[in-house]
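Consortium newsletter contribution from the modelling node. Members have asked for a concrete example of what our holo predictions look like. Here is one, prepared for the adenosine-5'-diphosphate complex that several groups have been discussing at recent meetings.
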Amino acid sequence: MPEPNTPISTSANAANGNRLSIENVAKDFMSKNGPVAALQETSLVVSEGEFVTILGPSGCGKSTLLRIIGGLEQATSGRVAFKGKVLSGPGSDRGMVFQSYTLFPWLTVQDNISFGLELKGAGKKQRAEIAHYYLELIGLEGFENHYPIQLSGGMKQRVAIARALANDPEILLMDEPFGALDAQTRLIMQEVLLKAWEGSRKTILFVTHDVDESVFLGDTVYVMTARPGKIKKMMHVPFERPRRYELKHTKAFFEMTQELLDQIREESFKAL
Ligand code: ADP
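And here is the predicted structure:
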């Protein structure tokens, strides 16, 4: 296994021209009391179609890292490159899903999903077809004419995921998207997301503080240190896909999550 925090270059990655490469990215925020180090130099390489989960204690810089990749925040040093080109701002190649529901309240479910398509110039018929495909995928057919206020938290987040996928980004950046949901809805949403992902195999970077979630969803789990965060450990998740809920009851799943839990617990104490 490569040393944590050095660019990980496997032969598979080397052959993968569409990889996302995060190279020595660090971030200091300026505050009234001087600079606040949010993220130490962090490097990782994500292959096309890889589902990466990032675990870390609160405040360690997970969101900052994701926002830098999304082009919403500028790194103090280092760079992010995709397909060999340095990224310098937001772009339609990257979609984001946040913890808070970011739907437009004045648009119906269908119009929320197809909003980005309209900006891209897709016609009405094409927009409706794509929206229906994703509505079915997330199990919300029949809700196309509802407004966000008429939906539960889990339903709203399903629409947010459908909207991000409908825009057909090459990379999906997900910042604790299930963090505000109750435990039962969260479990269901994990399966909904996996089902949607199986159909598209987008590259995903998914930030979470839930160890079970990181293993159940990811191909690779990165654990970050306490703030200012950097990558402390990388683990490949060996479980075959498609994954089902029952996986969580297996000994191998338990052992892997325990190992990660020990790592994250240590960092959470440091964060305190
Ligand atoms: P996480 O997502 O791991 O909880 P964040 O990336 O949100 O952590 O934040 C990392 C650190 O940077 C935290 O200490 C936070 O308070 C600080 N921080 C985040 N955004 C800003 C900002 N805009 N200005 C100043 N400090 C910030």
